[in-house]
Design a protein that fits this description.
Blueprint: E1 2-7, H1 13-23, E2 27-32, H2 40-48, E3 52-55
Parallel strand pairs: 1-2, 1-3
Length: 56
């Protein structure tokens, strides 16, 4: 399963733990909006190319 995590304010202990656990068994991608300078188009493309999206 492809899972996308979108971090609005950067990682915290809970999000880091969940992402680490999921990465053991799934294809996990993380977009950190507090650091990444991505276009809206790239973010939308990432959302639609993953089966599950989690926003923190």
């Amino acid at each position: 399963m492809k899972i996308l995590h979108i971090l609005n304010d950067g990682p915290d202990s809970l999000s880091s733990e969940v992402i680490g656990l999921q990465a053991r068994e799934h294809d996990v991608t993380v977009i950190d909006l507090s650091k990444a300078e991505l276009s809206y188009e790239k973010i939308i493309d990432a959302i639609f190319s993953h089966e599950r999206v989690i926003s923190w």
